[in-house]
Design brief:
Layout: E1 10-18, E2 21-28, H1 32-42, E3 52-59, E4 62-68, H2 83-98, E5 110-112, E6 115-117
Antiparallel strand pairs: 1-2, 3-4, 5-6
């Protein structure tokens, strides 16, 4: 993966969340690929779920994704995949990547204060 040398800053990018809709999620340049991958993966969810990312918040230095969906009349944990189960799995997959990725450049990183940084961006 090529290293992004963009100066440390947060960027808000208009993100296509669902056909014809968009939302702003503020993340550092290094985390943007992870968010985009989660959005791409969610695009494969069944249309009847009505799944849509609605934002993200920081919690304990990591990013927590938020979404809305149609839960239908299904039980969580049933044989048929429930939208909630799919979302939790997707969110956890993204969170695990975020916990080891520098928010500034996308290189391997670790928790440094209230965010994840690589050695190069530790002091920013």
């Amino acid at each position: 993966m090529a290293k992004d040398t963009t100066p440390a800053r947060s960027s808000t990018r208009d993100t296509k969340m669902k056909e014809g809709e968009s939302s702003d999620i503020e993340v550092g340049n290094g985390w943007w690929r992870i968010i985009a991958d989660a959005i791409d993966e969610a695009a494969e969810f069944p249309d009847e779920w009505g799944f849509e990312f609605v934002g993200a918040t920081r919690r304990s230095g990591a990013l927590l994704l938020h979404a809305v969906y149609n839960p239908r009349d299904m039980q969580v944990g049933s044989k048929e995949q429930h939208p909630y189960d799919a979302f939790v799995a997707l969110r956890e997959k993204a969170r695990m990547r975020l916990l080891h990725t520098c928010e500034v450049c996308g290189a391997a990183g670790s928790f440094r204060g209230l965010t994840v940084r690589c050695d190069e961006h530790f002091t920013l």
